[in-house]
């Protein structure tokens, strides 16, 4: 029986291994992590991450060929294939701070693999890492190998949170990069055989190591670039009276461009886009390519601009001050169908409003109060460090209350900011909400999900990203 071990039981490792276990009953899969609380949760009825369809898959295979454990060394030493899916945050200090990936977790995982291995291993990079990390890892492993053969593969993950299980069931492609030696090719084939249980062969692409590593960064940079492109257009739409949804629809009808990933929003978030682009920028700079670095940096700058623009819109519409005013924030996760808040635009928007002394009442169906308080008091780039390495009780931000209902959040509020596109926000009783708010009552829709006309009929002043402006808003320009 082939044995797989995955180091890191997070958003990537957990769902990916659960699906491998489901699709390959003949393979034993162990997911290991240094975090006791995370592993306890994976073994309980309350999984540590919210992901539609995940619970069903885990319950089908847990205890059969899918195991979650903190006994990292035992499972690593027994495995034939080891996936490494530990976090790779942005460095917060030292060389490359604010840009380069912090490979501390990766390096310690690699050293541990070298220490405990007694048989040949295939080591698979699953977390996004800078190009040429595989080479560094290879060096750590071979210099400590005691005669054991380690083959390094890069097998980047393209799943998106909220749709992870579907993405894993039907991937557009699976990418496997490895060495062009006979041993490297053999390792590629072994991993290919795993995926071939459910993925058609022609969708499994094999490349050299560096192409696979760079493809992941490139794919995320291209995706984020589309959002920054449409968000940049949204500012121009507001200035000219065009409607960004109509523009995006018309542009996306060109089959060379395509319709997906053209939704204007308050900004992109998530654990990948910003981190991977910062990484790309750093790699370009290190390779003497400042023009290329600046080109990609702009994608992040436009994203920051979009978040600032949103805050300015809110403040300027409300007579240039939100000081002491209650603002309801609906949605805190970086997108719907996840409880993940890493790099969510809600953090910057809330901090911006708090900077103007607003009182925030936040509701998100999947994010806990503790997480929100942690996010709002955390330093930039600390977000991707495991919770157990963060301060135990962050000082809570006093002007913030977290409630468990949209009606409670909006009661007596002056304005509502919709920051995540949860489906339930589309069907709220907005008349009831309006009746319980201060007047004039504002809705700032950062995800373009509400029916503007209906809300205006009720009496709201409505702002949606990139849409023709209410006359009220036109008279109160948001100067960035
Ligand atoms: C992304 C990539 O899609 C995935 O392939 C990669 O492996 C990891 O990074 P994820 O971050 O989970 O996945 O979510 P994604 O659906 O890409 O959304 C990222 C952000 O962009 C979200 O904040 C989302 O709201 C925003 N977004 C997305 C838009 O603002 N507009 C769009 O049209 C699409
Ligand atoms: P991702 O979104 O990439 O899956 P997460 O932060 O959700 O990232 O998961 C990474 C996991 O890796 C965390 O649960 C963390 O505790 C774990 N981890 C980090 N370093 C190690 C290590 N050396 N051994 C085992 N697990 C580790």
TrEMBL record:
<dbReference type="InterPro" id="IPR014026">
    <property type="entry name" value="UDP-Glc/GDP-Man_DH_dimer"/>
</dbReference>
<feature type="binding site">
    <location>
        <position position="342"/>
    </location>
    <ligand>
        <name>NAD(+)</name>
    </ligand>
</feature>
<dbReference type="GO" id="GO:0006065">
    <property type="term" value="P:UDP-glucuronate biosynthetic process"/>
</dbReference>
<dbReference type="InterPro" id="IPR008927">
    <property type="entry name" value="6-PGluconate_DH-like_C_sf"/>
</dbReference>
<feature type="binding site">
    <location>
        <begin position="86"/>
        <end position="90"/>
    </location>
    <ligand>
        <name>NAD(+)</name>
    </ligand>
</feature>
<feature type="binding site">
    <location>
        <position position="161"/>
    </location>
    <ligand>
        <name>NAD(+)</name>
    </ligand>
</feature>
<dbReference type="GO" id="GO:0006024">
    <property type="term" value="P:glycosaminoglycan biosynthetic process"/>
</dbReference>
<dbReference type="InterPro" id="IPR001732">
    <property type="entry name" value="UDP-Glc/GDP-Man_DH_N"/>
</dbReference>
<dbReference type="GO" id="GO:0003979">
    <property type="term" value="F:UDP-glucose 6-dehydrogenase activity"/>
</dbReference>
<comment type="similarity">
    <text>Belongs to the UDP-glucose/GDP-mannose dehydrogenase family.</text>
</comment>
<feature type="active site" description="Nucleophile">
    <location>
        <position position="272"/>
    </location>
</feature>
<dbReference type="GO" id="GO:0051287">
    <property type="term" value="F:NAD binding"/>
</dbReference>
<dbReference type="InterPro" id="IPR036291">
    <property type="entry name" value="NAD(P)-bd_dom_sf"/>
</dbReference>
<dbReference type="InterPro" id="IPR017476">
    <property type="entry name" value="UDP-Glc/GDP-Man"/>
</dbReference>
<feature type="binding site">
    <location>
        <position position="38"/>
    </location>
    <ligand>
        <name>NAD(+)</name>
    </ligand>
</feature>
<comment type="pathway">
    <text>Nucleotide-sugar biosynthesis; UDP-alpha-D-glucuronate biosynthesis; UDP-alpha-D-glucuronate from UDP-alpha-D-glucose: step 1/1.</text>
</comment>
<keyword id="KW-0520">NAD</keyword>
<feature type="binding site">
    <location>
        <begin position="272"/>
        <end position="275"/>
    </location>
    <ligand>
        <name>NAD(+)</name>
    </ligand>
</feature>
<feature type="binding site">
    <location>
        <begin position="8"/>
        <end position="13"/>
    </location>
    <ligand>
        <name>NAD(+)</name>
    </ligand>
</feature>
<dbReference type="Pfam" id="PF03721">
    <property type="entry name" value="UDPG_MGDP_dh_N"/>
</dbReference>
<keyword id="KW-0560">Oxidoreductase</keyword>
<dbReference type="InterPro" id="IPR028356">
    <property type="entry name" value="UDPglc_DH_euk"/>
</dbReference>
<dbReference type="Pfam" id="PF03720">
    <property type="entry name" value="UDPG_MGDP_dh_C"/>
</dbReference>
<feature type="binding site">
    <location>
        <position position="33"/>
    </location>
    <ligand>
        <name>NAD(+)</name>
    </ligand>
</feature>
<dbReference type="Pfam" id="PF00984">
    <property type="entry name" value="UDPG_MGDP_dh"/>
</dbReference>
<dbReference type="GO" id="GO:0005634">
    <property type="term" value="C:nucleus"/>
</dbReference>
<feature type="domain" description="UDP-glucose/GDP-mannose dehydrogenase C-terminal">
    <location>
        <begin position="328"/>
        <end position="452"/>
    </location>
</feature>
<protein>
    <recommendedName>
        <fullName>UDP-glucose 6-dehydrogenase</fullName>
        <ecNumber>1.1.1.22</ecNumber>
    </recommendedName>
</protein>
<feature type="binding site">
    <location>
        <begin position="127"/>
        <end position="128"/>
    </location>
    <ligand>
        <name>NAD(+)</name>
    </ligand>
</feature>
<dbReference type="InterPro" id="IPR014027">
    <property type="entry name" value="UDP-Glc/GDP-Man_DH_C"/>
</dbReference>
<dbReference type="InterPro" id="IPR036220">
    <property type="entry name" value="UDP-Glc/GDP-Man_DH_C_sf"/>
</dbReference>
